[in-house]
Specification:
Elements lengths: L2 E6 L7 H15 L2 E6 L21 E3 L2 H8 L6 E3 L3 E4 L9 E9 L14 E4 L5 H13 L9 E4 L3 H9 L5 E5 H10 L5 E11 L3 E4 H16 L11 E5 L7 H9 L8
Parallel strand pairs: 1-2, 1-3, 7-8, 7-9
Antiparallel strand pairs: 3-11, 4-11, 5-12, 6-9, 6-10
Helix pairs in contact: 1-6
């Protein structure tokens, strides 16, 4: 029996159990064995990183949209989009496959908005993350500012480590995935952190397939995702899956081109 080789680049920020449930459901419906790994250091491969799809090591992955857009822009592309996306259980997304990035400081910090963070120590989870890194770069570009706006920029390694660094006073502010922050507040309502600004909405983190796997199983994977019972996901923060296509990421693709992260030839 063939194995569905999957990886999440989004844990531990989002529960590993969520991706286990999804991969198990997809593999069952495709008649495949399931094998799921996690990469906790980056939100997905970018330029200069090892490409496990090109190397034939992965069939499916959950990653951040900058990585998807980079891999899809290669010639030839190494990934294709699964045409189904998460809708998280958050009233702000209006049932759409979207999420937000929240700018967070300690409760006693005087800052009231992102613009008040000039000279602050800024924390980002990793340089491939949309919510933790590129969202802030886009905000700085809109203000005609560069990263010199901050006194220091620290890559913490994960949203969890950004929260820990904030609480420890090692950084002054960070951008945190809205679904991650929602989970924190549900588990620790008295967490001494405060949201002072928000970016987004952004297109939900995509599910991608290697181009070779997509050629055979792409339609079946999308159908399997859309068929997952919402009751299997609600305890993990997800309301359901909905159909998506590449147009969902068009605006973000243009933003990355303007930031010099993607070529505009494709």
């Amino acid at each position: 029996m063939q194995t569905l080789r999957a990886r999440t680049y989004l844990s531990p920020s989002l529960p590993f159990a969520l991706f286990e449930r999804v991969v198990d459901e997809v593999a069952y419906r495709l008649g495949l064995r399931a094998e799921l790994s996690q990469e906790t250091g980056i939100s997905g491969p970018m330029a200069g990183d090892h490409d496990p799809f090109r190397a034939g090591e992965l069939d499916l992955a959950f990653l951040c949209s900058p990585s998807y857009l980079y891999l899809a822009a290669l010639d030839p592309p190494s990934v294709a989009l699964a045409e189904a996306g998460f809708v998280f259980d958050d009233v702000r997304n209006g049932g759409r496959p979207e999420y937000f990035s929240h700018v967070v400081v300690r409760s006693d910090d005087p800052a009231q908005s992102f613009d008040d963070l000039a000279g602050a120590r800024w924390g980002s989870n990793d340089p491939c993350s949309l919510s933790g890194h590129f969202a802030a770069l886009q905000a700085l570009q809109q203000r005609s500012s560069g990263t010199h706006f901050f006194r220091a920029q620290v890559f913490t390694g994960s949203h969890e480590r950004s929260v820990a660094a904030l609480l420890a006073g090692e950084i002054d502010a960070a951008a945190i995935d809205s679904n991650v922050l929602s989970r924190y507040h549900s588990e620790a309502p008295d967490l001494p952190l405060r949201v002072i600004d928000s970016f987004g909405p952004f297109p939900i983190q995509p599910i991608v397939l290697s181009t070779a796997f997509a050629a055979r199983y792409g339609a079946a994977v999308s159908a399997a995702l859309l068929a997952i019972e919402h009751r299997a996901l609600t305890c993990l923060g997800v309301a359901r899956f909905v159909p998506v296509d590449a147009s969902l990421y068009a605006e973000e693709r243009q933003c990355l081109i303007e930031l010099g992260q993607l070529a505009c030839s494709r």
